[in-house]
Amino acid sequence: MTSIEQQSSSSAQENGLAIINSKAPFSSTHGKDALDIALIFGSFEQKVSLFFQGDGVYQLIADQDGSLLAIKDYLKTFSAFEFYDIEDIYVCQQSLSNRQLDENFHIDEVKVLSSIEFSAALNRHQHVLRF
Amino acid sequence: MAIALTFQNKIIPTDKQGYLLDHLLWQKDLALVMAEHDDFVLTDAHWEVIDFVRQFYLTYNTSPAIRALTKAMKSEFGEAKASSRYLYKLFPEGPAKQATKYAGLPKPARCI
């Protein structure tokens, strides 16, 4: 976890926790740490939304296997999100196109948003954790 | 207290609470030995949950905590078996905790 931000605007009360993923998978523990927090919130019926931007978008791209690097492939756990009631998963379109990535994700429920929509969705959350 | 788990003349490495350190060493007969160490009797109903938890882990690379476990079991076994009440009857010390142990998986990080 690198920072916690509290939204001050009064319109931002409705949506619980937002977790921003901004790092590529497997090169650091950021992605796995973010996932652990998301699953804990899900286990306790707390609403959580996931945001992927910057190099974080690589966490959603299909056909990767961390176990080739002798790292536990935590991306496989994304497919279990339905059991944790994690349904709001957003990815920044700009970040994808900057990296010339197609919308070829390994889970289905991903919503691709423009930069403006992405910020707006983020702003609906009361708490934001950035990884 | 570490438990020395001996199975087919080999020592199987476990953590302090008896969870396997390498889930690939698991097999059904080993689960029986582990349960025996705990004076715990595994019935068909227990096996149903143990097999389910193991399959969950192999699919999603994580041991399910209780809530995710009941939600996932609902689609497979229906409402009656997908309640924490049913699961706690089978595994009084915590279904996710105990079922993952006999399934040879790491203890779920998320406590219950």
Description:
The complex is a heterodimer of chains A (131) and B (112). Chain A is of the alpha/beta class and 131 residues long. Chain A has one domain (14-130): Hypothetical Protein Ychn, Chain: A, CATH 3.40.1260. In chain A, strand 2, helix 1 and strand 3 (48-52) form a beta-alpha-beta unit. Chain A is built from 3 helices and 6 strands; from the N terminus they run ββαββαβαβ. Chain A has a 6-stranded mixed beta sheet with strand order 1-6-2-3-4-5. Chain B has 112 residues and is mostly helical. The longest helix of chain B is centred in the middle third of the chain and has 17 residues, at 44-60. A two-stranded antiparallel ribbon of chain B has the order 1-2. Helices cover 48% and strands 5% of the residues of chain B. In chain B, a hairpin with a 2-residue loop joins strand 1 (5-7) and strand 2. Chain B folds into 2 domains: 5-37, no CATH class; 44-102, Arc Repressor Mutant, subunit A (Orthogonal Bundle). Chain B has helices at 28-37, 44-60, 66-77, 84-90, 95-102; strands spanning 5-7, 10-12. The A-B interface holds A 36, 39-40, 42-45, 72-74, 76-77, 79-80, 82-84 and B 56, 59-62, 64-69, 71-72, 109-110.
